[in-house]
Records
---
Amino acid sequence: MGSELAESPQRQNMVEKGNPFIVGVLILGNIIILYLVLMLIVYIFECASCITSYTHRDFVVSNHRMVTKQMLTFYAAPTAQGRELTRMWDRIMMEQQCCGATGPLDWVNHTSTFRSFYPEGLAPWPFLCCKRDANFVILSPEGCRVGHVDYINTKGCFEHIENAVNSYTWGISWFGFAILMFTCPVMLLAMYHYTTL
Amino acid sequence: MQGYWLLLPLCWLGQLCVAQNLRPQIANPKLATNNPTLTTIALEKPFCVFDDSLSPGSSYMVYLYAMADSASTVSSAVTDNSSKPLNTTFQDTNGGQLGPYRVALFNVPNCGSPPLLADVVNMKKVSDVLKQYLFRVGDDVTCLYDPNFSGVCNPPLDEDTTYRFKYLLVDVVAGVVKDQTLWSDPMKTRRVKQTSTIDTWPGRRSGGMIVITSILSTLIFLLVVGFLASIFFFVMASRETSTETTHESQTTQQAVPTSQGSSEGVNQ
C-alpha cells in the first residue's frame, strides 16, 4: 500500500516532517479522491433538485389556490412574465374550452390585474371564456357577459393543469430518485476501494 | 321568469293582479348566472304587472327607481305632492344614499307576447330576448363623465351595498303616476376578495414528498460520513506506511552489527 509513497525519497522526507500542506496536496493529487469529491458535489445537487421538484409539485398540484393566485396576478399584466402567462392561459382556455382556474366566477370574486384593465360592465371575464362556433366567432357577447350557461364555458382549467403537471413531475421525480438510490452504493463502493488502495 | 309564470295564472284569475302587491324581481338565475355583480344588478322587467291600470287612451312608460337600503328610513318617496314622479338623479342622491333616484325609463313590456326562456338557446334571438326580458341597473360606465349626455344616467352601483327598486307606471301625457309596485326585497351587490389574501400553502405535505426527502437526506448523510471516513483512513494509512518504511531501514542497518556481535560471541 505504501509502495507509491516510497518511490521518491524527496516525498518521503517531506512526509516525515508531517507538513500538513504537503499531506493535503498528496491527497488531492490522487485522482480517485478528485473523482469522489466531484461525485459527491453532483450527488448533493441532484438530491436537492429532486427534493425541490417534489416540494414545488405539492404547491401546484394539491389545490388550486396557487394557480388561481398566479392567474389573477399575472393575466393581462404588461410585463414580460405577464405576457408569457397570458399566452399560456389563452391557449389552455381555447383548447380545453374552460375558463379560469375553477370557473368564470374566479374573475368576479377576486380583484385582479385583468379587472384593472377591463371594467366589469364591459368584460366580467376574458373573452376567451365565451363559447365560440367553428369559425372561432363568439356565439353571443351579451349572453357571455350575462353568464348564461349556453354561451360561456363554465368548466375550470385547473383539472387539466393538475393532470399535466402530475404526470410529468411524477415520472421525472421518481426516475431521478431511482438513479440516486442506485448511485449511492456505487459511491460507497468507490470510497471503500479508495481506502484499500 | 319564475316571477312571470307565477303572475300569469293570478292575472287570469283576476284577483291578485294588482301592482300594489307585487315587487320587482331579480332576473332568473338560469338566465343571468352572474347576478348581482360588483356594480350591476339585473332585474326582470315588469311583465303583466301594470296591465290593469293601462287604459287605451294615453301612452305609458315604466320608470325604475333605485335606492340604497340605508336610505329607506330617511325618505322613500318617489312622487311629489301632485302625483308627479320625482326627477332625482344619481348625483343628486349621492348614488341612492339620500333617497331614491331615477334609473331609467322604458316602454311597458308587452304582456301578450313575453320572451320565452327557451328562445335564449337560439343564437340569433338571444340578444333580443335579453333586452326584452331584463334590465341591468348600473350598466352605463360613461354617462357620469360625459358632459353631453342628456338622457337618464344609469351609472354603476357601489359594491357590497344593498339596494331596493321600484317600478312606476307613468302616464306620459298627463305626467302623473298611475300605478306603482312595492319596494323590492333588498338586493346586495357582490363583494370582492383581494387576490393577495389567497393562501397558497398546500396544507398537508404529500406522502411522496416526505419519503423522498427523508430517504435522500439519509443517503447524503451516509455518503458524506463515508467520504470523510475514507479520507481519514487514507491519511492514517499513509502516515503509518511512511513511518514503517523509515523504521524498516533502521532495523536492517542494525541487524548487521548484532549478527557480527553474536558470531564473535560464538567464536569466543
Note: Chain B touches chain A through 66 residues (CB under 8 Å).
---
Amino acid sequence: MAAPRESQSTRSPEPMAAVAASAAGPGTRAPAALALRVVAECGRSKARACELRLPHGTVATPVFMPVGTQGTMKGVTAAQLDSLGCRICLGNTYHLGMRPGPELIQKAGGLHGFMNWNQNLLTDSGGFQMVSLLALSEVTEEGVRFRSPYDGTEILLSPEKSVEIQNALGSDIMMQLDDVVSSTLTGSRVEEAMHRSIRWLDRCISANRRPDQQNLFAIIQGGLDPVLRSKCLEEMTKRDVPGFAIGGLSGGESKEQFWKMVTLSTDQLPREKPRYLMGVGYATDLVVCVALGCDMFDCVFPTRTARFGSALVPTGNLQLKKKQFAKDFQPIDEACTCPTCQRHTRAFLHALLHSNNTAALHHVTTHNIAYQVWGPLGPDFIG
Amino acid sequence: MKLSLSKVAQGYRLGTLNNLGRKGDRTMEFPGCLLYTRTGSAPHLTHDTLQVISRVPVMTQLTLSSLAEHYEVLEEYKEGIGKFIGMPESMFYCSLHDPVNPCPAGYVTNKSVSVWGVGGRLEMTAAKFMSVQQALQPDWFQCLSDGEALCGEVFSAKRARKSVDRSLAFLDECLKLQEQSEVLRSCVMIGVIEGGDILEERLRSARETAKRPVGGFLLDGFHGDAMTKETRLQLISAVTAELPEDKPRLICGIGQPDEVLECIEAGVDLFESFFPYQVTERGCALSFSFDYQPNPEDTLLQQNGEKEEGEIGDCIDKVTTTKRVPETSFEINLKEKKYRDDFGPVVEGCSCYCSPSTDPCKKAHNPCLLNCTDTVARGLLGT
C-alpha cells in the first residue's frame, strides 16, 4: 500500500447527491440512501479507502462487518459492539424472518429498534442459509421452497417475499435474493442460476418499497466461469442499484480460482459504487481482497471460533482451552486494546473456559470482533 | 477493620464496616450482599457489562470449590486472585462451597473437608486449605468447617455435635497456620457457626468460636428445607445474641428477598447474591416491589391463579423440572406468551443494565433470545 491517506483539504468532497445522481443520470429520482466517496487509492494495487454514507451513519471502508444471528451478536451486546467501533453489522434474515417474524420486528421499530442498535445494518436475503441448512429446499423460478425447522410449515421464499421481510427489518443495506449454487459445481446449472439471479434482481428492485431508505445490492454470480461471470456483470451493472456484492465464492474452490474471479469482478464493477465480497473473513484473505478492489467483508469465523475458545492473533489463533495456556500470564495479544486484552490473561481465560461460566466466551468473542474490526483493516491500513 | 453501628432495633443492625481492604481505606455498608461469582467471574458478565449496574457490591464472593483446582497456577502467578480474575479493585471473601451447587454429603473427616471443582473432588486438609488461601490472598475467607449436621434428610444430634467439634478443631489448626504466614496474617479469618438444629450445639459453637481471634462469623447450615422457618429464625437470633457486636455476621445459602429480610431482623449483616443467577438460569427475570410481602406463596397464587397452568404449558423449558416456573413471587417467566409482544422494560423505573432510560430492554426481545438459547439474554437477565 503506497498511497498516503488524502486529507479533506487536498480533495474536495463529492456531495452525496452528486455521487448518486451521476450514476443514475440527470434529474431522475428520489434522494439516494447511499453515497460513496473514494478518499484514497493505492498506486500499485486496486485497493481504495472510501467513506460510505448510509442512513445510520458513515462507515470507513475497507470494513469488516461482524455477523450476528437471531438478533444479537451471540455473546456481545449492541452497546459493546458500538464501543468496539463497529459501524455496520449483519442481521440474519433467515433466522429473524422465521423467528420472531417480520410483523413482530416491525412492531419493535424494525431490527434497529429490536436490537437497540443505532449503527448500520446489512441483511442478507435468507436464501443462502436455506440452501445450505436445509436439505429439503427446492429452487424454482418462483423462488426457494423449504420447510421451516421451527414449525414444519412449507414456505416459499420469493424475491418479493425476501424484500418484504427486509423492508420490515429496515436494514440499511439489503441483499437481493439470488440463486446460489456451489462454486465447485459446473455445467448448465451454473448458467441457469446466473440468469435467474438477474431476473430475481429485477424482481427485487421492483419489490423494494423503501428505496430512499434501504439500499438493495445486486449479487454477481456465475461461479468460477469467467464467461458466465462477465455476462452477469455486464447485465447487473446495467441495473440502477447502489452497490454490488460478489457472490458464489468462498465455498470450497481453490484459492487461485477464487482470486481470479474476485479480480475479474472488480475490474468490471463501477468505481463509484461499493463492492461487498460475501463470506470472506480470514485475515490473509481480507488483505488480498482489499488489494483486488473490494470494500466490504463479512464472515462468521471470528465469532464462531470464539465460541470454541479460539482467539485470533496476528500469527493465527490460540486454542485457549489447551493446557499450554494454563500458566500463560500474557493477554491474548499484547498489542490489542480490546477490553479483554486490557484486563485478562490467557491463564484466566483458560481457567474460565473450563468452567461453565459463559463469560469466558464473551471475553473471547469481544476480542475476536475487535481484532477483525480493527486488525487487518485497521486505521493504519492505508498508510 | 472497624464496625460502626448507626442503628440497632429489635435484633437487626444498620451500620458500616470501615478500614477494610489491604490499604485499610475501604468501607462496606450493612446489611448488604457480596457479588456472586463462578470461577472468579460474575456469571455471563464481563467487566464492561457488569459496570453498567450502578451499585455493584464492594466485596466479591469467590468460592474455594471453583478455584482450588487452579492452586498451582495461582501460586506461580503470585499476585493474588483479584488481579488474576481481572478485578484488582474489588475486595474478596472466599467461601468454602458454592451456594448454588450443593456438594455431596459424606466427605468430611476429622482431618479434611472435600470441595468439588470442575475436575472432581479435592480433599482439603487444614494445611492444604491454608496454602490455597495463601495463593488466593483474599481479604476475608471462611475457615475450613464441617457443615454437615444432617444424616440423610434429618438432623442428628450426634452429627451436629461432631460438626461443631470438628469445625472448632479446624479453626484452631488454621489459626495456628495463619500465625506462621505473613501473607495470611493480612487476611481476615471468618469463623463458622455450626450445630444443625440443636440449640445447645448452636450456642456452644457461637460461644466457642467467639473466643477465637476471628474477624467475623458465618452462620452455616441454615439453608435448605431441613429446618422449618420458625426454627431457623429462632436459632439465628439465639446465635447472633451470643456473638460480639463489633464483628460482622454472614450467612450462606440464603438469597430470596423475604428470607434475607427475616435474617436481617434476626441479626445477620451480610448475604450472598446467588439468587439472581438462579432466577436467570430458569429463564426468569426479577420483578418485585420493594414493599415487603409477608406471605410470598399466597401472593404467587393470587397473582397467577388458574390461567397460569395453561401458559406454563406453552413454555419451552429446556430443563425438565417438576417445579413451577416462575418459582417465586419475585420473578416473571419471560418465556410466557404474554410477554412475546411486550416491549416495555422488565421493571418500570429500574436503572439496571436491562432498562436504563436510554437503552430499553424489551420484554419481547428476551423470549426470542431464550428460545434461541442465546447467552446474551442470560447475561442481560443475570444483572
Note: Chain A is about 35% helix and 20% strand.
